[in-house]
Write a structure and sequence with these properties.
17% strand, binds uridine-5'-diphosphate-4-deoxy-4-fluoro-alpha-D-galactose, 11 helices, three-stranded mixed β-sheet
Length: 342
Amino acid sequence: MQHKEKMVLLAGGAGYIGSHTAIELIEKHYNVIIVDCHYNSNPIVYDRLTEITGKHIKHYDIDVCDEQRLNQVFEENKIDAIIDFAGFKAVGESVAQPMKYYENNLDSTFSLVKMMKKHNVNNIIFSSSATVYGMNNESPLTESMPVGPCTNPYGWTKYMNEQILKDVANATDDFSVVLLRYFNPIGAHKSGLIGEDPKDIPNNLMPYISQVASGKLEILSVFGDDYDTHDGTGVRDYIHVVDLAKAHVLAVEYALEHKGAEVFNIGTGTGYSVLDMVKAFESVNNLLIPYKVVGRRPGDIAICYANSDKAEKLLGWKAEQTLEDMCRDAWNWQKNNPEGYK
Ligand code: UFG
């Protein structure tokens, strides 16, 4: 069932995944409001979204943790559902500055839930991560596997927020929580107008490859080639960000129709190695990516990919875009925006 005209608030919605989700929601006739302090996003994205959708997006440039100002957003708008994308996401930084992560990532969710309770908003979708599965589960990962222990504070904040939201759902009549465990989102909207714009030197593989391709970075470091995988390099489940965005629309529909808490893996079910990714990027875009093999990155696991059958069964969602689509769209964004949104 579609829920035209319902109002969805995207917390941290100006970022990479939020901005792509805004488009998909608008295409399905939802009303969208974005709340974002632009710690890790650029307000230019609103113009780009207007260019793509033909719609002006109402936005509040405030920190979700600022309860007073968030309260005003809830007072001024009749919100039906929240998607909580807000949070810091750099794994390495979270190890160096754990308090920064625990404070911000938990506070932002607390602040949203408090306002939801106060204003009688009962539906929340939370951006979780495959990182909650920790190091002890074997892929393909299914939602029924035990979570934790996580390998870094960022992962623990996802783990803790999942638990908090489940507890709130248990304790509150008519409350609905959908936890989406993302695997590795890459690629960009096909317009090339929006995409991933890392704050500093990218931590993640695909933006790093893209910046080597554009000449901004010199050479890719491949973190280890001695894993127990088909070519020795780490295997991950890369998913097109537009497929991921579509999962959010279906999650909102699900939340509006069901009560309680539910968790879904959002991945393709296929794992590719670092070298598979380099080769695919080179061949789709007709480019060469210089790389060197270096030591393993602490905290990395050999293999991580999803079983997403539950999302297919209950949400009616399945990844549609191929590895070639992901590599083509990632490069289309990078080549058109070599400095990101700047
Ligand atoms: N890699 C390199 N060189 C790089 C960057 C990455 O070889 O410069 C390798 C990694 O070692 C890994 C693979 O590429 O094997 C993917 O690494 P990413 O950093 O792109 O992604 P991760 O799987 O480590 O982490 C991602 C998200 C996290 C999330 C996690 C969930 O960034 O937020 O998936 O599993 F927690």
